[in-house]
């Protein structure tokens, strides 16, 4: 099916604005349903983030994305500085220092790092498409390793995992020899036992809980157990927005962010949550469609990496709500509460629209 007839008059891909807007509105409704009686200002903050983010997306739509190619290294250096500052001055919440208090806004540099690292990687892969060799491989691992290391110190394993996943996706779609890629994947798998010793105690506990939540149902397994109960209590049609007993009786922690999919399932049931998943997957499909239409390799690599990152975040977030993935704190794009996440995703959409606006069929 061709979507050309749905395009707006000036050639913008309607899906890249309409679908995220629908998801954001849906998220606002869900956030309101679980916070209006205890933290009513959260939903107002989320609405403000959406408006600001949408303005940023519109600006970036008409800003030539190719200019970001030359700015990417400068943006990367800024992000590294911010990640260092958050370790020194960051506000600590639930034992993690992830936010810098700007008084009017809590900035989470690790969210911005996702976007900036992808921009820089897209530049490197585009500029070395035909001669990508060992020195480039070492370079990209170093450039990704620095922010990943700093994010892990916060600690924020989920975001670090997202950034590293973006690199793996770009390696897969690059011209690197597949034997090298297979060797990298094999090395990562073999290094898992070593990496286990570097995990924090609570991170190890989350993995134990993922394997068997019943080991500590009132401790480390509590969130997962309550999320699964919340999802199941929604049934086919749900208990109604703001009516779910699991949510209103505060059995489900952070129901407005990490576990917002469970909130959705209880409120609108299997049918409503399935529709939400369809919207999210359609957004990923639209982003990958931008990659197919990109005018240059820089646009192609950015779009393909961001599309896969979105898919990864959706899979992990919903998976941890269903108890099939460990709890990592990865937000559900455009739906979970979070200003930095919303602004980052909206900015990425603006860049994608800019790529689409200037597209021609890419040739290799």
Q: In percent, how much strand structure appears in the residues? A: under 5%
Shape: globular
SSE sequence, one letter per element: HHHEEEHHHHHHHHHHH
Strand order of the largest sheet: 1-2-3
- Main sheet properties: 3 strands, antiparallel
Helical fraction equals 55-70%
Query: Radius of gyration from the CA trace?
Result: 20 Å
Mean pLDDT: 85
Q: In whole angstroms, how far apart are the ends?
A: 25 Å
Question: How many distinct domains?
Answer: 1
Q: What's the count of strands?
A: 3
Count the helices. How many? 14
Family: Belongs to the SEDS family. MrdB/RodA subfamily.
GO molecular function: lipid-linked peptidoglycan transporter activity; peptidoglycan glycosyltransferase activity
EC number: 2.4.99.28
Enzyme class: transferase
Chart the SSEs and their pairings:
Blueprint lengths: L14 H21 L5 H21 L5 H23 L1 E3 L2 E6 L4 E2 L1 H19 L6 H19 L4 H17 L4 H13 L1 H5 L4 H11 L10 H12 L11 H4 L11 H34 L3 H26 L16 H19 L7
Helix pairs in contact: 1-2, 1-12, 2-14, 3-4, 3-5, 4-5, 4-6, 4-13, 4-14, 5-6, 6-13, 10-12, 12-13, 12-14
